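Milestone M4 deliverable, item 7.
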Amino acid sequence: MKSLSIICQKGGVGKTTIVVNIGKIFAINGIKTLIIDLDPQGNTSTYLDFDKNNEFILTSQDLMSGNKSKEIGYLHENMAIIPSNQSILKFNNEKILGGSVLKKTIDSFEFKDFDVILFDTPPTMSSLVQEALSASDFYLIPTKPEFLAIEGVSQAMNFAKKSISNQININPVFLGVILNQVDTRRSSYVDFENELSYLLADKLLETKISNSVDIADSPYHLKTVEDFKDDSKSKIEFYQLANEILERMNINEKITQQSHY
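Output delivered:
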């Protein structure tokens, strides 16, 4: 089992979209995936049309409280979710003293049947993001292709490094930065990509996710790229991203699109 946090203190960079679509692609292709939502907004659950307030289902608040008595919610035979809602806010500003509560709970839980755990995190630099990092093997930072975003990427990287350095035996690997909502027609895009490539070198993922109306509207329609046609640019790009993430996480799997049309 390997775990990955998607982090960025800026909202609107596509964390939830990446988590949901990558999770669905993994699951459809036989990789047993657990999504843990740590965002009080609970957008992951909304996107997946899952009841985040079901009192019988294990929530991220339960994990943070050490409560393991409830059932995990399944969306697919290979895809499960631990949802979040506003009640997790009480953990948002708590200091991590004596080690990560989330890591301890996950280490003692029966999650070994899962191949991958994906953490969706709030758009903040807070204790909940620190908890996700502490419980992860890897972390990934999405960003928009805008010059002001470089500062945001730097802030997220520094926050992650500081959070990790304050914990004993916690050392998640920086998987890299993924450019999301890319519009190559913008005159500034090439300059931006070149600068980010110079700063990050091989930590800038090769895959880029294009700006797409279909992707932007998909949460409203409760759709993922798996519902798109096989020749959809967005579907092809997300499959490329899924494979690059697996490769960077040293998971020996290669997945291909499965035609539904």
